[in-house]
Write a structure and sequence with these properties.
heterodimer, A: mainly alpha, 13 helices, globular, B: mainly alpha, 2 domains
Chain lengths: ~240, ~120
């Protein structure tokens, strides 16, 4: 009797009926904490939302796979929102056309730097080849990165985790670094955020300003295309 | 609202179709973004409802990263073995890349602006 009821609970906990409100509530609490903290970078809703859901499913003993299946509609909307990034791009088209040359030049260098620093630091600290190959595409948005990891011999699920973590690092550090370097131009801010911190940093960039968000979205897409074309060839040169 | 959301999801679908049909290495959602961008340029972005719905969706972008982000939980084993190398690579590597990218763009933007404005 006790077994059947606990099984019923387990089924319910792993269903969309539980996983969707869990995610929404974690996000809402996250946004509340964020505004109460006076918009402290470290307490961005994406960070606290992820941590709260992690805590909840660990305490309730829900396997990640089942949670993800339950919350899949929210993950689906990530692609829908990615499509909607065309809106800030459209609104800022005149700025984009004016900055094409420095943007593309920066992109060429930035893609190389992002891969190189990640692999070099991991190599210095004795990581395995598989880990290094999974780290290389960490600065591009998940669907790009997982495809690249697969084609160069990394481990795609591991890459997905690295990508998310990288995005959080950039999103959290962005405004303190802008202050430190005294960079106030939304074009430069947004481009660097998108190039190094892909979609998660783009979410943060949109919060700063529509222009910052537009350049971040554009740079994220360009960096994804650039890295996924060049990285497989670069890896073949070295291995 | 519902019509606008449907239109955006149809672009998402078209992106996925183009990606599969042409077997492109670019994710379907990014192709969908490009197609939607072209559509906005052609129509002149006149539909206020479409813009409002899209912007509303974007204002909650962080929410949509949560299900994938929680997946970091799964990799605690790898983190135990290579933890320090991975953390240093992700944190220090990303910060160096971010700072250098900002400085490079700043330098290039200044150079290009001054060379353009020079007589």
């Amino acid at each position: 009797m006790i077994d059947t009821t606990s099984l019923l609970y387990a089924n319910l906990l792993a269903s969309p009926l539980f996983c969707i409100p869990l995610t929404l509530i974690a996000y809402l609490i996250g946004t509340r904490i964020y505004s109460l903290s006076g918009k402290n970078s470290l307490l961005q809703p994406v960070v606290s939302g992820i941590v709260l859901v992690m805590l909840a499913i660990t305490l309730l003993d829900i396997p990640y796979k089942l949670y993800f299946e339950g919350a899949e509609i929210i993950h689906f909307l990530l692609s829908t929102a990615t499509v909607a990034l065309a809106i800030p791009l459209y609104h800022n088209i005149k700025y984009i056309r004016a900055s094409v040359r420095p943007l593309l030049l920066t992109l060429l260098l930035s893609g190389f730097i992002a891969c190189f620093t990640a692999v070099a630091i991991a190599w210095l600290l004795g990581a395995s080849l598989e880990v290094m190959l999974s780290l290389a595409p960490k600065s591009i948005t998940t669907p790009f990165a997982m495809g690249v990891a697969e084609s160069i011999g990394g481990y795609p699920p591991l890459t997905a985790g690295f990508v998310i973590f990288t995005g959080i690092v950039v999103a959290v550090s962005a405004t303190p670094i802008f202050k430190w370097l005294n960079i106030n131009d939304p074009i430069i801010q947004g481009s660097a955020m998108g190039m190094v911190g892909h979609g998660i940093a783009t979410a943060r960039a949109l919060e700063l300003n529509s222009k910052t968000g537009a350049f971040s979205a554009l740079s994220m897409g360009l960096m994804g295309v650039y890295t996924s074309i060049v990285l497989p060839y670069a890896v073949r040169l070295f291995l | 609202m519902l019509l606008s959301l449907t239109i955006i999801i149809l672009f998402q679908l078209s992106g996925a179709l183009v990606q599969q049909y042409l077997n492109l290495p670019i994710p379907g959602a990014v192709i969908g973004m490009i197609l939607f961008f072209i559509y906005l340029c052609i129509t002149g972005g006149k539909s206020d409802k479409l813009m409002t719905t899209g912007s509303h969706l974007l204002s909650h972008l962080p929410l949509f990263f949560i299900p994938a982000g929680v997946g970091i939980l799964v990799y605690t084993e790898e983190l135990k073995v290579h933890g320090i190398a991975i953390l240093a690579s992700l944190v220090i590597g990303s910060l160096i890349a971010f700072v250098l990218t900002l400085l490079i763009f700043k330098k290039l933007a200044v150079n290009i602006n001054t060379s353009d404005s020079a007589p």
